[in-house]
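Table S2 (text version). Query chain:
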Amino acid sequence: METMTTTEWRSFVTTGTKLAHIALTRADGRPHVTPVCFTLDGDELAFALSPGSVKGNSLARDQRIAVCVSDDQQPYGFVTIEGHARVSADPDQLKHVATAIADRYYPTHPAEAIAESFAQEGFTAVHITITNVIARSGLG
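Corresponding structure-token output:
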């Protein structure tokens, strides 16, 4: 097992179409984990949040968040990111995040159209200020 450098973990999370698994705490204290499509936006991890979601309700109450991205084949690797989430309803921020996600996860569809549909459906943008990273490779 090896610890990834910053360059290595940034490459790991941005290569291919790996999903991020977001971990939050519900109001009653139960954990909530859910997969999301995401992008790195500068030094922050970003994703789009659908209206009325458990994620949104949790983040409105507590901005602490953890994210894990992992390989699905050997040799396994993973990156766990901890931080604080910032939710924005600003249409320009949402379109920026949604366009990057569309380019990555839906390359055969027009990114601008997907971003516009996210805006029309009331999605918001989430940016995570990263406070800690645990990144390992060569497992199993």
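Notes on Table S2: The first strand starts at residue 2 and ends at 3. The longest helix spans residues 91-105.
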